[in-house]
Amino acid sequence: MRPASGILLVDKPGGITSHDVVARSRRAFGTRKIGHAGTLDPMATGLLVLGIEGATRLLTYLVGLDKTYAATIRLGAATTTDDAEGEVVSTADPEALTAVTDERIAAGVAALTGRISQVPSTFSAIKVDGKRAYDLARSGQDVELKAREVTIDRFEVHNTRRQDGAIDLDVTVDCSSGTYIRALARDLGAGLGVGGHLTMLRRTRIGPFALADAHDLEALADQPALLEPAEVAARVLGRLDVTADEARDLRHGKRLEGAAARIEGQNAAAIDPDGVLVGIVERRGAALKSAMNMPEVQA
């Protein structure tokens, strides 16, 4: 029997890679056709969105969604990886830390809010000449990554804990896809002149999907219920109800002439009378055309 197709929300624990979660899911669901819509570092915990079987085709439309993170930033030390797993490369003098007032922290946070230019962490999965940056960095090579524009919609400090040699900040960050929270910690510490790195990171939201709805890793063995592709696509892109004839035309690569006015954005989820996701349509002038078709459900 063919495994079900759908989207699975998983709460990744710390200490394992996102690929480890995919591998365990493949064993649990009996299929290799599983992918994810955005990785988490081994140290990080929280929401991973997995696509199973035909629903892997939806991951392209999920990977770019904005995200929310809960994090702890430690001011007073910089590390090679910008998180607690790296080696400490500098520490702040006690006098410098004492000079970091709440007001200066607030100003530093404000400077990193909105549309900003961010250089990703050297120890990241970004490819440089076909190789992962973290592999190059671990081999001792100098890695220079280009700055990229990201959007920080919210960078809020909830709690400040001052201790010997460090200031810990518990924060929430709402950000665009591609943002490195480790880089935020690094840049906040650098701007304050004391260094900074991440000691905790937990992803709590991806687009409309919340960590509260995710399954623990242990629950995968029971093959938890999947989110239907039609539900997921409609929540992300908006819904276009199509007739059986229109569904057939879309599956055959035909355009729906004059149908562009029926959707609000550039794309929408085309859903047939049985509630099945036909695929994702896109505007082509006044017409709609399939940008992606789902595998047809066999009766």
TrEMBL record:
* Cited Pfam families: TruB_C (PF09142), TruB_C_2 (PF16198), TruB_N (PF01509)
Q: What is its EC number?
A: 5.4.99.25
Q: Which residues form the Pseudouridine synthase II N-terminal domain?
A: 26-181
Please list the coiled coil stretches.
none
List the catalytic residues: 41
For this protein, what reaction is catalysed?
A: uridine(55) in tRNA = pseudouridine(55) in tRNA
**Its job:** Responsible for synthesis of pseudouridine from uracil-55 in the psi GC loop of transfer RNAs.
UniProt name for this protein: tRNA pseudouridine synthase B
Originating organism: Microbacterium paludicola
Gene (UniProt): truB
